Amino acid sequence: MSEFAKLLKEKREEKGLSLKDISSNIKVSQHYLEFIEKGEYTKLPSYVHAYGFAKAYCEFLGLNFDELKSIFDEECKKEDFERKFVRIESDEIIQKEVNLKNIHRAIILFVVVLVLILGVVYYFLSVNKKKLSQKKDVIITETVAENITKYEDVIAANETESSSMEIDPAEILEKIKEKKLLDNETKHKVTLIFNDICWVNIKIDNSSVLDFIAEQGTKKEIKFKKYFLIDIGNAAALTIKYDNITFSRFGGYRQPVKNLYFTVNEDNYLMYEKIK
């Protein structure tokens, strides 16, 4: 545990307060307060968040943040957040290359499987047709009375056997499409709320782009799998909600901000950085 975090935790326990009590008073998520108490500052969305939340927490406990700022600065550095984003960006590029290779392999595998399925269908239909023809030839050589009964039995048995062995390629393709749709449904959802007019440009998962003018009171819901990148013409107009957590104050009034990169980490927390 870091020295700064240790001081906060000891002071909180001395006052008999829980993290939930602190969270409700300073309006900071309990998850973020847990990161601060563990000294895990880089798990917060940005250096600005880490600095602001730590200062609010410190002052609520009655501690002088200015006196402790030198300790905080040694443990929480801006460059730590910059290195973290470079790693995320690099991982994203590598992941895109891996995804392209996986798509090519999936297409080849799909074609091979489809050809095998059609071959199996043709084989079973040919075998069933041949068996039916042979059974009819045997029945014709028997007596007329036996022929009527046995022919009906053979036809009924053959229809049951054929129906149980029949494979429908269209049905198999439909199931494959349904599986792909289910795989694509795993997406994160955020709500954009605008309290003033501004222009907006959003790139989602490097595939879809939204470009529009938001009016005051506009609410827009977007879904993404990995990330979204947003440019806005009025930084103070935008508020983002994700999983009961609110993000705002991205800049000054009428100040344009570009390249705000949002993603969800392994703990299902929404994080963002401003990239160049």
TrEMBL record:
Annotated HTH cro/C1-type domain ranges read 8-68
- Xref: Gene3D superfamilies: lambda repressor-like DNA-binding domains
Citing just one GO molecular function, the answer is: DNA binding
Task: Supply the InterPro entries for this chain.
Answer: Bact_Cytoskel_RodZ (IPR050400), Cro/C1-type_HTH (IPR001387), Lambda_DNA-bd_dom_sf (IPR010982), RodZ-like_C (IPR025194)
* rRNA processing is among the record's keywords: no
SUPFAM superfamilies assigned to the protein according to its UniProt record, in alphabetical order: lambda repressor-like DNA-binding domains (SSF47413)
Domain of life of the organism in this record? Bacteria
Give the keywords, sorted. Answer: Membrane, Transmembrane, Transmembrane helix
Question: Where do transmembrane segments lie in this chain?
Answer: 106-125
CDD domains, per database record: HTH_XRE (cd00093)
Name of the protein in question: Helix-turn-helix domain-containing protein
What is the organism field in this record?
A: Deferribacter autotrophicus
